[in-house]
Amino acid sequence: xxxxxSKEEQAATSKVTADQPQMPRDPQSPKGRPTPKRxxxxxQRRSMAQTPTNRKDVSKRQREVRRADMAKQRQALAxxxxxxxxxxxxxxxxxxxxxxxxxxxxxxxxxxxxxxLILVLSMLPSLQVKNISLLxxxxxxxxxxIDSVGIYVRLKKQLRLRFPGENLRGAAPYALMRTLQMRxxxxxxxxxxxxxxx
Length: 198
Hints:
With 198 residues, the chain is an all-alpha fold.
């Protein structure tokens, strides 16, 4: 009674149903669903035609999408377009932190050229020049620390004034990391001039 049917029986029943002619649907009877609009039907047909069939096509399409997203992101980093910026650069708080740093001179942005100069001086054979290079190195580090602390405190104060009740976590370290980059190489590109009021 509950045993499974054999393969021959299943094949025979499927053959019988295949041999029976399909009853045509009465043209006057409703079809049980609304007719889709032409635009919806066309878009569905297009999406079905464009759906990749194997894994190679899927990975190729994902690469193309990722490449397009990266191109948009690079363009946004150059132009400052908020819509396509990376997540770490998005939002009014991060924008204010960037503008705060870009509107002033920072000692840390000159660290790289000064480090190269000090390295060249330390390679010279003169002992006096080597001592001067060590003093310069110490002076640069002290100036960077003092300037960074000042920027950190002022930025925190301005952020609390302008964005009360907002989550300000990570904005000040983000700004300090930006000070370490030379203005010309900063991404997103600076949107304000030096000395501009924010």
